[in-house]
Amino acid sequence: MRPARLRSCISGPAFLMTGGCTLRGAPAFPIMGAYFPGWMACALIGVATAVGLRVLFLLTGLDALLNFRLFTYVALGVIAALTVWTLVFGP
Fold it and tell me: Buried (b) or exposed (e) across 14-32, using 16+ Cβ within 10 A?
């Protein structure tokens, strides 16, 4: 195969794979002069939500009914983080 033809075969799919890239950049916001990435804020909110729900479940007695506690709290934290991400940075 010729180099020019090989280059066109590679650049076509590579061009299509970059369709999600934009010139806006990553979602970030300044906190005390430094840009703080949005994914980290959403992760912290997810962790805080999971810890808060664990305390709430312990106080109400629901924690004793859970079979897979770790997976439950991780899933609740991920749901909270992705919900915040969608609401704040989504389309």
Answer: eeeeeeeeeeeeebeeeee
Rounded to an integer, what distance in angstroms lies between the CA atom of residue 45 and that of residue 41? 6
Longest dimension (CA), the chain: 70
**pLDDT tens, position by position, 8-38:** 666 666 666 665 555 566 677 777 777 778 8
- Beta-carbon contacts of residue 66 (< 8 Å; ≥ 6 apart): 57, 72
Tokens, residue 86: 């969608």
CB 17 within 8 A of CB 5: no
Alpha-carbon distance 42 to 26, whole Å?
A: 14
Is 0.90 topped by the overall pTM?
A: no
